């Protein structure tokens, strides 16, 4: 074989030349069109197989191939039938294209391009729609997964895992171009990214439409992440989309579908009270890949080091009276205490000693077994269980893990954190969604600590219970929910509802209105949010809302099928296949298949198989670059990397006692940048040492670390609660003396004292 053009690591030609991605964002919904350009420069016909990541909650709704002047649009068919048609086409010398979702994880797809003759080019067009997740700072996050790290496959796992051919990001043999158009009823205030972008271009004076492009020369060393910020983002909205004219009324695609976006706002009186109970279980990934740098650059700390610092902040911020435990996992798992213990100075110190020596040295990523163990522990009465899962999310058995969390969703809330590039969105979002919690992704230059503390604030919010949704619609219009029932509400976080509207929708008058009411109970207070909306359907939305509604229903049915596998007659699977085919949205039981039947001349000769490699992050472990494309070698043994000296904030935080106070000692003086004598001298005589030390620590936090307030706010609240219980004298005098000592000007009321 003569090797020419782009080559894989094994010196094989790569038939994929370029990927073009166009993103269209309307408010909080994105349509993504990817075009993959293939060319066969070999002297034999090719079959090219490309395994690549997509967002786990994407609704893949279009797949077509263009060869020369001929465009073939793929159809959705039952997966086995599609595979057989593909194989039959290849064996008879026809061109065929197959796109299917992985059995194990909904965020991995496999694209097979079959019978590409020598010298022939093919252009593949793939389209999907997706909701953009709201971040803690109100930004909407879009992520184009460009990195697919090898997935760790647990021992004894059933079913064939997806075989991924991967190369270091710097050696990816094809190019990526990416452009985005953003439009919203509200002005676009900014667009940020972990990648280099060309400047944002506004398309109108109201700044409600804008375009942005990825700068040339993307290195494939990270996912392409966009954070889109609108002015007044927390506006509830409703979109009623007209059904497909060619579809039968009464079916999902034939009827109008409504998408409601709700942002519940809770009473401030309830929100200011932080729960003082709960069982907090922290599950930390210590697989080898956690030893890599946070931002794949030598100046950044490792993932495991950042996780250790985060655990310090979490442990210092927990309320007295709660219970806690820390688990860590790799190929095996460990726990600090045999069962959750009451939070006290002694248990906190014991846990912190063990956290300090945690390293990325436990091998692979087997998350299922520690989760089973945690769920086997009885819940503690009156201490609601809150599970925090930290992982770089590279596992094969994503669906099994999510299924287990869903099965136990009645007994806990699950908060998940995806660390680093290439973490599985299906795993991280699935854990939080099924566990009634909140998901966060920590990529690029993000600091882990503020995102985790945001989730701890959510966990300390009283749980919202007795959630119900009621509809008030005109006579002759009925509603069928497509979304599963809402089980979780958080302050300021969006809840989405999809529903099919049947009957004379919008026909009686253009002014016809519907109303939805969400009722719930929060800390014993009954509350409700209402949204009135026009029933007049929008015509030009490209069936985006229908496809997202279909995807939501498909995912619910797939989960139901997995839960009852073997107990049913296959009725749920048939329902999924029928819905997938009708809506044109892929599922785990269906695939897109396209066969070029217009090509009369069969392609001669045996097919040469080519795997298209995907980028993988190089784990920079002690300046050693490690490559592996074996799915079981997806994690490497971590090597200890010398960390920079401790951050002054963490130094001060590490000295806080479990009760919330600080002690006046040389370590505190050093953390404040003073000598022991300088710190002790200005203390008013009638004030005890702990009160004085705590006031100094609070002044230092407010005076020097306001930019990191999200990280220390909860532990400062605990310090203020401790302080108020002391009924200390001379508070004003202490604050004035502390400000003079530290060179600050923090007011007493700002400190909350």
From TrEMBL:
Pfam families cross-referenced by the UniProt entry: VIT (PF08487), VWA_3 (PF13768)
* Ranges of residues in domain VIT: 1-130
Q: Which domain of life is it from?
A: Eukaryota
Q: Which residues form the VWFA domain?
A: 279-456
Enumerate the InterPro entries for this protein.
Answer: VIT, VWF_A, vWFA_dom_sf
Q: What is this protein called?
A: von Willebrand factor A domain containing 5A
